[in-house]
Amino acid sequence: MASLYRDLPLDTDAAHAWATLRDSRNIARVFSGVLTDARVDGDLRTVTFANGNVVQERIVAVDDARMRVAYTVCGPNFEHYSASMQIVADATGGRCRLVWICDFLPDDRRALVEPLMDAGCAAAARNLAL
């Protein structure tokens, strides 16, 4: 199983970052440049990537106490795909980090997922800043 882990400093406070990230309808704004659209129907989120690919995700958990969203990708492209995004407050209170973890099968999808995840990190750093 491939595992990707990103720990990204954000130039904003945790409360602002979490308020934006926790709402599934904001995901296209958070990852603008990588995503162009997101539609939410219950716990299903359909996202459209800038390259035209459309992916359906199921929101598994939104944990306000831990500022963490867990989701899985549905569909035929992966045997398994689970991920989480968590906002972690900085000890000083003025900044925070985004911790994003993905685990998926088959391993060879890494060549597809990793560049999108890295582009997503760059977009989140831009779009979550105050």
TrEMBL record:
Organism this protein belongs to: Paraburkholderia eburnea
Protein name: Polyketide cyclase/dehydrase/lipid transport protein
Domain of life: Bacteria
Pfam families: Polyketide_cyc2
InterPro entries: Polyketide_cyclase/dehydratase, START-like_dom_sf
